Amino acid sequence: MATRYRISFPHIIFIHTRCDQRGSVVLCEMGLSGVRLQPLCVRSLSLTASQNATLESPPARADSTFKVTMVPGDGVGPELMTAVKEVFKSGDVPVEFEEFHLSEVQNMASEEKLNEVLTSMKNNRVAIKGKIHTPMEYKGELASYEMRLRRKLDLFANVVHVNSLPGYSTRHNNLDLVIIREQTEGEYSSLEHESVSGVVECLKIITREKSRRIAKFAFDYATKKGRSKVTAVHKANIMKLGDGLFLQSCAEVAELYPKIKYENIIIDNCCMQLVQNPYQFDVLVMPNLYGNIIDNLAAGLVGGAGVVPGESYSAEYAVFETGARHPFAQAVGRNIANPTAMLLSAANMLRHLNLEYHSNMVSEAVKRVIKQGKVRTADLGGYATSVEFTRAVISNLSA
User: Fold this and answer.
1) Domain of life here (predicted)?
2) Minimal CA–CA distance to 85: which of 326, 369, 362?
3) pLDDT single digits (tens) 58-98
4) Rounded distance, CA 239 to CA 230, Å?
5) Of 56, 99, 142, 209, which cross-links 70 as Cys (Cβ 3.0–4.6 Å)?
6) Is the dihedral of CA 265, 267, 271, 274 positive or negative?
């Protein structure tokens, strides 16, 4: 039974062919979000379904599984990945993980290991990872392994969707905003030197090409997701050339999207406004350092680092991780880390792979457990352990 499928993304970048276990030819074109399958030519079909329908019952078992690169990282990362693997196993999710342990603080870092991870990511094109902790000590290399991974894969866009969790009350409820961060240049360019003794120069790199690219990504995202406003975050009043170029690039791109409202705001005022009235924001786009700060601030508005998922995109690859990147080293081995953010990131990954049923199953189970309020980890005011929370999610998979 041979069937050809076309897998299309909203932004077509490349084509990859492979054969499944029955010999079916599959064309893979990667882009911003999940995939949609369209038959190109069919000799025989055993299953038909509406392409855009939301599955209410488990689909027929796939002939083969999706391979995904997994990098647990440091701190509680391995514990969180264990939760993901257990939930996927219980939910019969058709994903096979290629697991690699990469760490700069556990003597598990080398060029060979880094290249192995990169090879796997390039082959699979989808990965899920924990935080790879960056030591503050200078050991001859300024660029961390995290930064090198982003640059090697050109993961220029980091997306963090800050969404209030049903049933968990915070100072600001019903929040729904998106933070888009350029993460391949800016202050994290790893260009530092001591010009004279006691004087260190740290270079911030802003380019028109990458500023326009992240601005276009933000406006494309807003258009695709039906959002109405994009706000550029900057400090152009002080860094007149660097942030001035970023701001100018955003304004130029904004003219191409007349249906999307465009505003800009200075970074320090943005922080205050997020605390006072976050509802005024929809999609925010910003350079590297500001994005790192705003990601963490916004995560705190809805429950903290343990509940907000994130993802990073290049033209060809997608990496799913927590929205606020913390190793939470003090919790290692204590069974207290909140798996919510990593599980929601895993659910977003499944949606990207067009596994809508499984994505909804995992995300709804997580949200159902939190809404019920009986099993919550300490960061959400509860007493449950990581293992107890994971078991509760598993028990809600088929609820």
Assistant:
1) Eukaryota
2) 362
3) 554 455 789 999 999 888 889 999 999 999 999 999 999 99
4) 21
5) 99
6) positive
Contacts of 115 (CB under 8 A, 6+ apart): none
C-alpha triplet 204, 310, 392: angle, nearest 5° = 150
Over residues 254-265, the pLDDT tens digits come to: 999 999 999 999
Query: Using CA atoms, how far apart are residues 247 and 373, in angstroms rounded to an integer?
Result: 43
Distances (CA, A) of 120 to 30, 117, 124: 16, 5, 6
Please work out, in degrees rounded to the nearest 5, the angle formed at the alpha carbon of residue 251 by the alpha carbons of 293 and 13. Answer: 80
HSE-CB at 229 with a 13 A cutoff on CA atoms is: 12
CA 30, distance to chain mean position in Å, is 16
In whole angstroms, give the CA distance from residue 225 to residue 319. Answer: 20
Residue 196, helix vs strand vs coil: strand
Name the H helices within the chain: 77-90, 111-124, 145-153, 208-224, 242-254, 267-276, 288-302, 340-352, 356-372, 386-395
DSSP line for 330-349 = GGTTSS----HHHHHHHHHH
Handedness of CA 388, 394, 397, 399 (dihedral sign): negative
pTM over 0.85: no
Tokens standing for residue 172: 């600001």
Determine what percent of the chain is predicted with pLDDT higher than 70.
Answer: 80
First to last CA, the chain: 35
